[in-house]
Amino acid sequence: MLGRAGKTLARDHKMKLTSRTYHAAAWRAATASRGRSDHAEPDLMTSKRKRLPNATDVQVGGRLRARRMALGLSQARLAEAIGVTFQLLHKYEKATHRISAGRLYQLAEVLKVPPEFFFENEIGQKPSASSPSDYLTKFLANPDGVALMNALRKVPSARLRRRLLALVQELADQRD
Predict the structure, then answer these.
(1) 43, 66, 110, 138: least buried by Cβ within 10 Å?
(2) What DSSP string runs through 87-121?
(3) Same-domain pairing of 23 and 64
(4) Are 133 and 62 in contact (CB under 8 A)?
(5) pLDDT band for position 78 (cuts 50, 70, 90)
(6) Is residue 9 included in any domain, yes or no?
(7) Are residues 12 and 74 in the same domain?
(8) Is the model more confident about 141 or about 84?
């Protein structure tokens, strides 16, 4: 039960400015005046720290994005197919939200790949940043990469595809 001092503090607390600094100081004062030092103080300024995604989360999100783009699906269409908002799907792709096992299985079914597709390395190994499949994932996660791949697939002649590849390599090797 709050005494007279506690009730006054609570009333003053509601009437003061809503800055985080004031609230943290008022909470400390209220707990100290009641002699309750057994509670941890909330750190209101740092309570919303961002979690940095680990390498596996980034890899899964990148492979999700690459496969979605290779199939020509928009984020909205894929999100609707698995029953989430496109904002959440965007967070999955950017690895700001982790994908649960059940959701990963749903995604694999909709994208017509096995769930293992999202993990290029064996379980327990960290994906290497320089692996060839990582480079390919980054390339296919780019709209230009998907467009180039789709255009090359439509060229009927293997000889012409090789000539186009040689042209692209020559252009890439040129220094301006």
Answers:
(1) 43
(2) HHHHHHHHTSSPPPHHHHHHHHHHHTS-GGGG--S
(3) no
(4) no
(5) very high
(6) yes
(7) no
(8) 84
Proportion of the chain above pLDDT 70, given as a percent: 60
Per DSSP, the three-state class of 125 is coil
Counted residue by residue, the chain has a size of: 176
- Quick one: 65 and 8 in the same domain? no
Burial 32-53 (b: 16+ CB within 10 A, else e): eeeeeeeeeeeeeeeeeeeeeb
Q: Which of 20-24, 108-112, 165-169 is the least confident region?
A: 20-24
State which residues form the domain around 123.
55-141
Q: Is 148 exposed, middle or buried (0-12, 13-18, 19+ CB in 10 A)?
A: middle
The answer on pLDDT for 46 being more than 60 is no
**Run of H or E residues at 60:** helix 55-70
List CB contacts of 104: < 8 A, sequence separation 6 or more. 60, 115, 118
Q: How many structural domains comprise the chain?
A: 2
More confident position, 108 or 126? 108
Query: Domain containing 133 — which CATH number?
Result: 1.10.260.40
Same domain flag for 122 and 81: yes
